């Protein structure tokens, strides 16, 4: 680990995971100009989901918030795979979070705060972003949470 962001991850006791391989026909992240767009990132850890089910039923708000943190960490790994270096992040522009929700669950923003807070802890002011938190009926592999991010990169040296 040599960069500022890598050092911050280490300071927080976090390790950037390997990029989660696609589960269908897409790329984990693509670059267009100075922007990197990630695919929706599930909270995969070592190739599997630690929890499945609906938030508000089988999964608690706090568990889902922790899973959203994992999604954001996976998204940063996807960004690094195309940007080469997380220190190239100028800012996180947008976060979109999807929460597989029980029919009466309305705490989607609190769940996606897990991703937003992680980005702030790791990137400081560069992690401040616009965001959507959306409740959905079901997510791939019965994941409770999915997060995608868009980042702006600094121009190459």
Write the layout of secondary structure elements.
Elements lengths: L3 H8 L17 E4 L2 E4 L22 H23 L5 E12 L7 H16 L6 E7 L8 E9 L4
Parallel strand pairs: 3-4
Antiparallel strand pairs: 1-2, 2-5, 3-5
Helix pairs in contact: 2-3
Share in helix: 25-40%
Query: What's the total count of β strands?
Result: 5
Q: Which residues sit in consecutive blocks of at least 5 with pLDDT less than 50?
A: none
- Secondary-structure element series: HEEHEHEE
Query: Number of helical runs?
Result: 3
Strand order of the largest sheet: 1-2-5-3-4
Main sheet properties: 5 strands, mixed
Structural write-up:
The protein is α+β, with helices and mostly antiparallel strands and 157 residues long. Helices cover 30% and strands 23% of the residues. It has helices spanning 4-11, 61-83, 108-123; strands spanning 29-32, 35-38, 89-100, 130-136, 145-153. The protein has a five-stranded mixed beta sheet, covered by helices on one side. Helix 3 (108-123) links the parallel strand 3 (89-100) and strand 4. The chain starts with a helix and ends with a strand. The mean pLDDT is 95.
